[in-house]
Design a protein that fits this description.
Blueprint lengths: L3 H14 L8 H31 L14 H18 L3 H19 L28 H27 L5 H24 L1 H28 L9 H24 L10 H24 L11
Helix pairs in contact: 2-3, 2-9, 3-4, 4-5, 4-6, 4-7, 5-6, 6-7, 7-8, 7-9, 8-9
């Protein structure tokens, strides 16, 4: 048994051995873990799709797997990503971009994609005069999701305004996000009420385009920040490559998806997988670049 003198002399040595470990704040760790978590949602979606593919085969798109047992992971991962984006926020313009993306992610999850007849085994669908349409048996699910989305979104806006009135939140820093939220919520509510069929036909498609388009813009913003030190040439090149790749994929997606059928090579599946990979890459690159960031504030930069 060691005597007390030996234990006392060992303590400084242990402290010395741990001196190389960086001291971090709770806020720093929160930002780091949120970035890792958002990247992790991509892994969860791809794993769910891969497992479902062993039974259902390779479908036309990743979104088609909503109609398979991958649905729970698909929806859960997108909602989790939305919450993480809202919590992560960002600085200046990046804050507004992330908050807007957080608005569109739940729509991708809660309003499923249209389908071509025979696209998913076991899902019956009749598309008179069009190549893809919304499976009407899933309309109650979409109705429930849209109702919750609009109400919760409205409550978030009201809470933000209340906090601003109580001077617990700077309205000058959040008004772009609040304005975007009000516009998106109003468009969703009005199109659901006044153009119901159009909403079901195009909401998922439009939300997907907006979501990835916002991250293309965020990548450009990170490559060319208005204030503060510019990124290193390596990080700038990576951000530009991510933005360019996302724009190219979105153009392809917008052209190909409306005509995609179950009989074709699943080009949309490839495009969506590539877009998710670039989304994953964005968070890896930003996570590495900003890992030592000691001031993750929301002040414009």
């Amino acid at each position: 048994m060691r005597d007390p003198g030996e234990r006392a002399s060992a303590a400084p040595a242990i402290v010395a051995d741990m001196s190389h470990i960086a001291v971090t704040t709770s806020l720093e760790r929160t930002y780091r873990y949120l970035r890792i978590g958002v990247a992790g949602t991509v892994v969860a979606i791809l794993l769910a799709v891969a497992q479902a593919a062993t039974t259902y085969g390779w479908l036309t798109s990743i979104s088609d797997y909503f109609y398979t047992p991958a649905r729970d992971v698909f929806v859960g991962a997108l909602v989790a990503a939305s919450l993480a984006l809202f919590a992560l926020s960002g600085r200046g313009v990046e804050r507004a971009l992330f908050d807007a993306a957080a608005l569109f992610a739940p729509l991708i999850a809660l309003v499923p994609t249209t389908l071509a007849p025979g696209a998913v085994p076991g899902v019956l669908i009749d598309c008179p005069g069009v190549e893809r349409c919304f499976p009407m048996q899933y309309e109650p699910d979409a109705a429930n999701g849209v109702f919750v989305y609009v109400v919760v979104g409205g409550l978030v806006v009201l809470v933000a305004l209340l906090l601003a009135a109580l001077r617990q939140l700077s309205l000058a820093g959040v008004w772009p996000s609040l304005l975007i939220a009000l516009v998106v919520l109003a468009v969703v509510a009005l199109t659901w009420a006044l153009a119901h069929e159009t909403f079901l036909q195009y909401a998922h498609f439009a939300a997907t385009i907006a979501f990835f388009g916002l991250f293309a813009a965020a990548a450009v913003r990170n490559a060319f920040p208005r204030q503060g030190p510019p990124p290193s040439p390596v990080f700038r090149t990576l951000y530009i490559a991510i933005a360019t790749g996302l724009v190219a994929l979105l153009v392809t997606y917008a052209i190909v998806l409306p005509q995609a059928t179950a009989a074709e090579t699943p080009i949309v599946l490839v495009v969506e997988t590539a877009a998710l990979a670039l989304f994953f890459a964005f968070w890896v690159v930003q996570g590495v670049e900003k890992w030592p960031d000691t001031d993750p504030s929301i002040v414009a930069r």
